[in-house]
Amino acid sequence: AEMTPEERAFQERIDAEIKIEPKNWMPDAYRQTLIRQISQHAHSEIVGMLPEGNWLTRAPTLKRKLQLMAKIQDEAGHGMYLYSAMETLGADRDTEIAKLHSGRAKYSSIFNYPTLNWADMGAVGWLVDGAAIVNQVVLQRTSYGPYARAMIRICKEESFHQRQGYEILLTMMRHGTQAQQDMVQDAINRLWWPALMMFGPSDADSPNSAQSLAWKIKRMGNDELRQRFIDQTVPQLEFLGCTAPDPDLKWSAARGHYDFGQIDWQEFYEVLKGNGPCNRERITTRRKALEDGQWVREAAVAHAAKRQQKQST
Ligand code: FAQ
Which letter does DSSP use for residue 4 in this model? Predict the structure, then answer.
């Protein structure tokens, strides 16, 4: 089909690596794809606070508690930042959050797994934030301006989280008891595969990739990013003195990459359908948080109304 002048101008901007800004014309499908991805990303940041929140009251030292609290607050900030980027596309925050709370919106599968021991706080920072960075560093070059700019700050903070997580694990491995070292390996065993699933289905089974790559919303395919994450993470794993729960993981000199085993995609799709170990608990917690804050919102509105009344008399 012939491109309209608007469509042509849009594609030329994309091809020339000029960012699309909120007031520029854009195809409706481009807008909808971005609202989908950015809202899912924002929901992930918010729901992603819960597995770590689980350990706030049980952090081993005051220093660890402060670090964990600061990290969780950063994630809240990322969520708010991303919801704002999403709003520049004309989407409504309350509507999108309502979709999350009714189970109609996705968020990252990783946050539907439980955090069972303190080493999970290290493994989440190292593996989950680590995977998030690999994905988000590339998104700093995404074609939509507000999303690209949000990624710059978010990546800086995520890098810090990743180091903090790794340092927790290194401390447990170097200075911990046998039981603490076993906790580290146990956390890695449970979180390794779910972290690899964060990059999404294989490119061949990724319905959105081709169009998103053409629009430069995505800059690299899911498999390429997953491979990049594995390649940079395995040396860190070895430095820790731990192993991955994957007997097929080994360096391939021929490929110049690590080979790895088959991901259990059935597990991935079950989690996406809402059947992961913690899906129900996560959504219930988010809904309760909204309900518990109802009185605050009502009070704020009442206060604003009173002030306005005072000013006008
Ligand atoms: N979980 O066709 P594709 C963080 C869905 S980091 C759940 O490949 P797309 C930081 C996908 O939405 C985590 N669903 O889709 C943090 C699609 O469903 P739909 C958040 C997944 O969009 C750390 C369907 O499968 N990061 O929060 C997943 O082109 C620690 C088909 O897939 C981002 O969101 C999954 N893992 O590529 C916070 C990054 N994978 O919508 C707290 C931005 C795929 O058609 C603590 N997002 N799906 O119904 C992206 O880069 C992309 O959206 C992908 C998926 C790569 C995730």
Answer: P
